[in-house]
Amino acid sequence: MRIRALLPLLSFCLAMALPAQGELKAGPWQTAGKIPPGWVVHNTKNYHVQSQCGIDKAKRLGAHMEIMNAVYRSMFKPDKAGAKLQTIKLFQDEASYHAYGGPQGAAAYFSWTEREMVCYDTGKWSDEVKADGPTTGPETPLDRLKRRRSRFLDMLTMDLLGTAAHEGWHQYFDWYVGSKVDLPSWIDEGMGDYFYAAAPKRDAKGKKPSATLGLPNDGRLWVLQVAQRQGLMVPLERFVTMLQGDYYSNPDVCYAQGWAFCQFLLHAENGKYAKVIPNYVRLIKDDSNWRVVTEKAFKGLDLKVMDKEFHAYVQSLKPTVQDPMAEDDEPEPEAGAEPTPAPPAEGTPPAAGDGH
Questions:
Q1: DSSP state string for 332-346
Q2: Mean pLDDT (whole number) for 313-340
């Protein structure tokens, strides 16, 4: 979620309703004297992490964002080196986050005016593996249903590292372009949700950390498959031209469709669409006229044919969390097992280049 002119008004309204956060300065805190009580600062190669949750969580967040920054750079190669560290604020809880100005319904946001990403500790971190609790005696259908419901409720809790990866994409794009540029929401928010689902790889000792891409975003997938059955998906010819206002008028369906469309372009149809997104971002960096860029990025591609392929792709996707009301004889995923990513076109999405 990008926060624009709405943020100052929202911050004022929330400040009137919630406990004050003191004099928390937006942006970087360069000297020890600028660090408020109860906060710590941790700097990585590309990020300036301000944490109200202690140094260990600041390091975990910083480490994940360095992995994601490498992913952003591999897909969207910059023509400049990073000079200033990107600021991230990590609040200890939701109330503190909202008191600072965090919007309702979002666990993180990026403010291009303040040049900072802001989030709070949701209690869910995707670098932790939580297995189901021990069972005693034969498992009953009720036990199984309770476990599925527990996993479903866990899915509804926003993952802190995922939300940071989503907003980190907005932050990277703002730095990458170097000026304020409108980006159609399917790629702006869709790529954010694509990166949300990236899972930290638990590599062997000595190997460089990385992330698994192309994993299903369960929450978006559940919504989209219901929308598909009800005929509520937006035709691609219209969808690729939607800016923030139209997108936000139907957020549940549009956010879900944006994630799936980006996943489809990067990973489906044996890679024939895999360069659309990297080329789109490269083009818009040099030409802020998004209508011209959209025409160039999809040149030679039949959106009506693509729409049919996209619908078939959505039908083929399987969530990692089953319907809690499904039949008891359906196979359960193994507790703690790594989800299976969508088959990539050529191992990983390509970096920006010419052509399709």
A1: PPPTTPPPPPPPPSS
A2: 62
Per-residue three-class SS string for 139-199? CCHHHHHHHHHHHHHHHHCCCHHHHHHHHHHHHHHHHHHCCCCCCCHHHHHHHHHHHHCCE
The structure tokens 């990385």 sit at 210
What are residue 110's DSSP bridge partners? 2, 117
Given a cut of 80, is residue 187 above it in pLDDT? yes
Q: What is the C-alpha separation between 73 and 281, in angstroms, rounded?
A: 12
Across 46-60, 67-81, 321-335, which has the greatest mean pLDDT?
46-60
3.30.420, 3.40.30, 3.30.1890, 3.90.1530: CATH of 1-122: 3.40.30
Q: 41 by DSSP, 3-state: which?
A: strand
pLDDT at position 206: 57
Q: What is the rounded CA–CA span in Å between residue 338 and residue 216?
A: 12
DSSP string covering 236-284, please?
A: HHHHTT--HHHHHHSHHHHHHHHHHHHHHHHHSGGGTTTTHHHHHHHHH
